[in-house]
Design goal:
- By secondary structure, this protein is an alpha/beta fold.
- A hairpin with a 2-residue loop joins strand 3 and strand 4.
- The longest helix is centred in the middle third of the chain and has 15 residues.
- The chain is 43% helix and 24% strand.
C-alpha cells in the first residue's frame, strides 16, 4: 500500500494553494442561513458563501461534515490503494470526529482509515494536516505520524480577537441581551485554547488597538523560538492584520510572518474584522 493521504475539514483554514501544495483533501462543513443549507464546493462557491455570511443578519448555524461525504472521500482514496489519515476538530467544537468514525465503518477497508483529534482550530489544525502530509510523503507510518503530531500540537498556541459580538449571537453562541450589552460597552473578547481544546478567555478589549496589544502580549508570554513562523489570520481585515504584523516585527523582532485570510467557518463565529495569531 502507498503512503497515506491526508484529509481534513474546512475549519482548518488552509487556502487552496496550500491544500494543493501539501496534497490535502478538505471536506466542507455545511452552513444553514435562515433555513437554507449551503455546502462549500457543492451547492455554493467559497466566495459566494462569504458574501452571504457578510450580508446576513439572521440566524446562522453550522453542521459537522456529513458522514456520507466523508465516506465518499475516504473510499476514493482507498480505491487508489492508499490509507487515510483524517485530522479533525476536537469533540467540544464539533461532532466531525464522531462522523468520521461512522464514515470509517461505511468504507470497504475501515482498518486503513486513521482518525486524529487535532484539539485545535483554524490554521493550527491546518498546520497539523500539513505536517502529517510531509511525514506521510517521507514514508512514515500512521502511528509515527500521530506521535509527531502530538509533539507538534504541544508546542502550538493560538489566540483569537473577535470584532463583532453579533456574529456570536447570530450563530447561537450568545443571547440577544448579551449582544446589546456588548455593543453598548464595545466588548471584544480575546480567546485562546487550552491544551485539551477548551476555549479560555484571555482579556476583554474595547478597541482594535487593545486587541492587537492583547495578541502581542499573548505571543510575548509564550515566546518565539528561532525559526518559528507567526501566522496571522484575518477576516476581511487585511489592514488590521498588517498593523498586527508591523507591531510583531517591532516588538518581537520576528520577520517570519505569514498573513492568511481566515476560512468561512471561523468567519461565521468571529465576524468580519476579527484577527487571530498562531505559532
Amino acid at each position: 500500500m502507498n503512503y497515506p493521504a491526508i484529509v481534513s475539514e474546512s475549519s482548518c483554514s488552509l487556502p487552496e494553494s496550500l491544500q494543493d501544495q501539501f496534497h490535502i483533501r478538505v471536506v466542507p462543513h455545511s452552513v444553514n442561513i435562515n433555513g437554507q443549507e449551503y455546502v462549500e464546493g457543492i451547492n455554493i462557491t467559497d466566495a459566494d458563501l462569504r458574501k452571504l455570511l457578510h450580508a446576513n443578519t439572521g440566524k446562522v448555524t453550522t453542521s459537522a461534515v456529513n458522514p456520507r461525504l466523508l465516506a465518499e472521500t475516504f473510499e476514493s482514496i482507498l480505491r487508489q490503494d492508499r490509507s487515510v489519515i483524517f485530522v479533525g476538530l476536537p469533540p467540544r467544537f464539533s461532532c466531525t470526529l464522531q462522523n468520521a468514525q461512522i464514515a470509517r465503518q461505511m468504507c470497504s477497508r475501515p482498518e486503513q482509515i486513521f482518525i486524529y483529534d487535532g484539539k485545535c482550530i483554524g490554521i493550527n489544525l491546518g498546520k497539523l494536516a500539513m505536517a502529517a502530509s510531509q511525514l506521510a510523503d517521507s514514508g512514515r507510518t500512521p502511528d509515527f505520524i500521530f506521535s509527531q503530531l502530538d509533539l507538534l500540537r504541544q508546542r502550538m498556541v493560538s489566540a483569537l480577537w473577535s470584532s463583532d459580538m453579533s456574529a456570536i449571537v447570530n450563530n447561537g453562541r450568545a443571547n440577544e441581551l448579551l449582544k446589546r450589552f456588548a455593543s453598548v460597552i464595545s466588548i471584544h473578547p480575546v480567546l485562546t485554547l487550552t491544551p485539551d481544546g477548551a476555549p479560555q478567555l484571555i482579556r476583554l478589549t474595547r478597541t482594535l488597538a487593545q486587541g492587537i496589544d492583547a495578541l502581542i502580549d499573548f505571543i510575548k508570554a509564550r515566546g518565539m523560538a528561532p525559526g518559528e513562523v507567526l501566522c496571522i489570520g484575518h477576516f476581511e481585515s487585511p489592514a488590521a492584520a498588517a498593523q498586527l504584523a508591523a507591531k510583531a516585527r517591532e516588538q518581537l523582532g520576528t520577520e517570519q510572518i505569514v498573513i492568511l485570510e481566515g476560512g468561512n467557518l471561523l468567519y461565521l463565529h468571529l465576524g468580519a474584522g476579527s484577527l487571530s495569531v498562531s505559532i
